[in-house]
Structure prediction request, 319 residues.
Amino acid sequence: MSQQRAHSDPYPTPSSAERTHTQRGFTITTLKLPILKAGPIDAMSARLGIPIPEMIFGDNLVRITHLRTGWGITFRAESALDTVDKTGAQGLLQVAYAKEWSRSREQSSAADIREVVRPYDWSYTCCYKGDETKGREGEGLVEVEEEAARRGEKAIPIELLKRRDPILFADEVVLYESELDDNGISVLSVKLRVMDQRMLLLCRLFMRLDNVLIRVRDTRVYVDFEKEEVIREYTAREDKYENVKRVSRVPCLVSVGCLD
Amino acid sequence: MFLAWCRWDVLTDLFQNLFMTGLLPDDVTVALRDSNQVAPLLPLVERKLDYANLAAAPA
Prediction:
């Protein structure tokens, strides 16, 4: 929390920035503040060891807390960026025109450039599942075995979420966004909705590198207030841009046009 | 919402006008910018599931 305060020092902290909702023993908090200024960005960059995305909402957060046990899960930008590959070990992506650019410079001095000074995943693809705070007696999330998960045990009950229960609290919080130097987009945001008996949170990274690759990394947190159960599901999806382009369809062109 | 109250002939005219102005976005381009449309099209490469029963914790 002290880190959070340090980030927000230069900013006014309007009381409306924080929204809190308590539902059957769980407290849900969202905090939305302006984009970070140069000082805090430099500090965060130094801590993480990588450059920071252009649009960084380092003060924003989403938190779910179970009041009786003290268990909680928090989503914030710095922790998410900490899960980005900072060494280039997982392979560095290249923009669509990289090969053509290299070919055109084979005869020039640029051809001698082989080493990247500071390799990191500049697409800011993270595998962020939130920061979990264990309960006072050590209560916390336990991984469901792969076989049990495949059988559908402890799965998020989609049918219950499809019901049109009144939404008592909802919010969307952006944690960071980068336009990848005009080569696409990488955006991490958290959306949540709270109903009377349950809630669903979705933390989604959407990364589209034009003409190269599309990635979606989803972390869903489902809370059943009555049973006091929490399910967290992390999924990683990706495919080549061309494959997605071939199969993508928009159901209604007219509705798209009318909304523009 | 718009579709609900709009008369079909008016809607057809609007569609035609939008189309003629060239402002109607390309369907595929629009889809590629919407994570909700793209996500179901992507193959799953990893899945992890965690579970906690906080009711079991001592009061």
Q: What stands out?
A: The radius of gyration of chain B is 22 Å. Residues 1-6 of chain B have pLDDT under 50 and may be disordered.
